[in-house]
Write a structure and sequence with these properties.
globular; about 400 residues; alpha/beta; six-stranded parallel sheet; 15 helices; pyruvate-formate lyase- activating enzyme
């Protein structure tokens, strides 16, 4: 979507191993072009270790590394395959260990976020790197924790679950999208079809992983029942950090190309699927879609429902890996007590959870207190939309278009 930024002088697009040297070569010659792009997919076993010495790590909550690029699944709405390919390319286990050492040589001792499109997309290579990470963890005095993004079929792979847990993973993001089998088929999310989604999430919780997940409304097959179904689905899973978005058609995706052929594209996506807008003409009445989405946000991030999901999570969750205690965590706890436990109008929910987790779930007290901060954050972000203080402008094309 670089076309949307006319004031930017130069764009170095696609994968930096290929296009950044092109930019540097022209920079040396004083002959810079506006756009540097390439369809070539580089061999990332040759990717250098990042220059961690160039940043102040105190400014960051987590440190990122990348093991693979690409995803074997090609969901209609997702641009990962268009950007990074369908066959995941991986770094070597030795590279990953060298990158981990480089981070910790700089004094980092917090969580590592492996930012892959799908960490388990190339199973044999993932197994190899996990075994190396386990060796690395065992050679250290103090363990550290990892988080990453995976597909739901992780729940079917007991060996992978065991190795990830032993390697120190305690959190995974998954695109669950919808409880609708019709919508899953429509968007090509076949890895989520024909399974009990709630039970799959429960297994991951029981295996020691906090699941955060993405959910979508606005598929062509969605009807007015989808909003209540999504709310009930999210509540049953016990997924505390539930990221609910309106479907967006991103350039380069199969969805965008299909809707373009159907003359339903209105504009480029804003890049934000939670700003109460959509960039195409939906089959469901537009006003119904926006109001239904508002109802999901309002209920999911209500005090009662949010804290109920935490209790559902605690019922299923088996704790294995702990983050290292840091003074910043204690400071954060005192801030949370002040803002949520004292100033917040609905503080009774906070204090009930505080003492329940402190005495009954002591091992994951820090995780649960972090969840209460998430609530404060999400509630603050969405409050104006929920209370109709922020008006979402209906696109002119939808005003003038008949329902498809």
């Amino acid at each position: 979507m670089w076309e949307e930024f006319p004031d930017v002088d130069h764009f170095v697009l696609d994968e930096g191993e290929i296009t950044f040297p092109m930019f540097l070569k022209d920079l040396e010659k004083g002959e810079l072009k506006r756009i540097y792009t390439s369809d070539e997919k580089p061999d990332i076993t040759k990717t250098p270790i990042p220059r961690w010495d160039l940043i102040d790590m105190k400014n960051y909550n987590k440190m990122p590394i990348q093991f693979s690029r690409g995803c074997p699944f090609d969901c209609e709405f997702c641009n990962v395959v268009a950007l990074n390919g369908k066959i995941p390319r991986t770094k070597t286990p030795e590279q990953i260990i060298n990158e981990l050492n480089a981070i910790y040589d700089r004094g980092w001792d917090g969580t590592i976020f492996i930012v892959d499109d799908n960490f388990i997309g190339n199973r044999p290579k993932t197994i190899q790197v996990l075994k190396k990470i386990i060796e690395w963890q065992n050679s250290r005095k103090e363990r550290i924790t990892f988080m990453t993004e995976v597909s739901l079929n992780l729940a079917d792979d007991d060996e992978m679950l065991y190795l990830m847990r032993e390697a120190g993973f305690d959190s995974v993001f998954i695109g669950l999208e919808t409880p609708s089998e019709e919508a899953l088929a429509e968007c090509g999310k076949f890895q989520n079809k024909n399974r009990n989604l709630v039970e799959s999430v429960r297994k991951l919780h029981q295996s020691g992983f906090e699941v955060t997940a993405g959910f979508i409304v606005g598929f062509d097959s969605d009807d007015e029942s989808i909003f209540r179904r999504q709310i009930e689905f999210i509540q049953k899973t016990g997924i505390v950090v539930a990221m609910i978005g309106l479907l967006q058609a991103l350039p380069g995706t199969r969805l965008y190309k299909r809707l373009q052929k159907e003359n339903r594209i209105l504009s480029h996506s804003t890049g934000n699927n939670t700003d109460f807008s959509t960039n195409f003409i939906p089959k469901l009445n537009y006003d119904t879609l926006i109001e239904g989405y508002k109802s999901i946000i309002a209920e999911i991030y209500s005090h009662q429902n949010f804290y109920d999901r935490i209790y559902t999570f605690l019922r299923d969750y088996r704790h294995y890996n702990s983050n290292k205690f840091q003074m910043s965590s204690l400071i954060a706890l005192f801030k949370a007590i002040w803002y949520i436990g004292i100033k917040e109008k609905h503080r009774k929910y906070y204090w009930k959870l505080f003492f329940t987790s402190l005495f009954k779930h002591t091992e994951c007290f820090a995780k649960v207190m972090t969840m209460s901060v998430y609530y404060y954050h999400f509630n603050k972000i969405f409050r104006d939309f929920i209370e109709n203080k922020t008006v979402v402008k209906k696109p002119d094309a939808i005003k003038n278009a008949a329902r498809i």
